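Structure tokens please, single chain.
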Amino acid sequence: MRRIRSLFVFVVLLAAGAAALPGAALPAAKPETVGMSSAGLALLDGIISEAVARRDFPGAVMLVAHKGKIVYRKAFGVSQWVPETRPLTPDMIFDLASVTKPVATATSVMLLVERGRIRLWDRVRLYVPEFTVWYGEKGLPSEEARLYNLLTHTSGLPPYTDAKEAAKKLGDPCDTADLVKLIAAIPKERPVGSEFVYSCLNYITLAHIVHEVSGRTLDQFATENIFKPLGMSRTFYRPPAELLDQCVPTEVVNGQPLRGIVHDPLARLQGGVSGNAGLFSTADDLAVFAQMMLDGGSYGGVRILSPLTVARMTETFPHLEEFGRGFGWDIDTDYSTVRGDLFGPRSYGHSGYTGTSIWIDPETKTTVILLTNRVHPDDKGDIIALRSKVANVVAAAIRGQ
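Here you go.
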């Protein structure tokens, strides 16, 4: 009998240990047990359901975490309208679009900084010799762009470049290295460091630098150093075939919805792996990543970043404070409507073109994740105002810190 009891205790302890291993989703809790209002959070049901009824998007997954616990997690609407409607569940996989920038690209860059492989003060031309500078009216060159200019969107590059024109020159698909050379030669639109202009081209260039320095492509590096250690098993570039039916489709292209194929044209041109877009994930996995950031770079006993690195990533860069950007993260720009009106100036986040967003508030230890596919089926969905409204509802539901 004693042997059976001992075996039972061992199994219970083993199960408890397994539950604490990296990869398990954040535990759930009733809102009141962590200082939030259930009635306040319930207001999310109405405003998201109304947006679905207006056909702002087919469906949404909403997740709120507070003090390391999930206090709200629901799916609304359907995963697609065409060619037929399909259900949406909270664990389905979304094309994150530009949320890729902080989660995969900037985090990978900062890991290389931590390891002494690169400096943010390094000139971009050290890794991309073809990278040109801006020339003024008198033909005088500006200063050279540095890696921190790429991270903060102050390099002078334009927002985007035509993927179809690039394909004519480079082939389809093309190597990221070749695309980066093309980007490097694009005339800069302003002096480096003079203005914040959000540009996907900055992060495509950073992905190439990660590859050049580490010897691993961005998807390999991020998986090995971020996603796998955190147990983010449903976060990846180019979702595997066996999970395609779990992927929420985006825009209809050539008569078929993009399912498990990245929506962004430049990311598609590179075969699906890019620094500006291409990452797929779930609300649960993003909540784990956000908790790692809130906990100073570690989660479940695994350290990804140092506390100082997290602090530097999530504050405005001292030399460019007026532009409101951290390293990968949006802090105080025209894109910060995701914050809403109540979360404070220390909070940060990012949004994605497909209809995704994440906002993290270290002051209250709160994460707000809203995933939609507002580009399905015809890229006409609306999400900007809703992001602010859900953030306000969540912030107002916090009763104690």
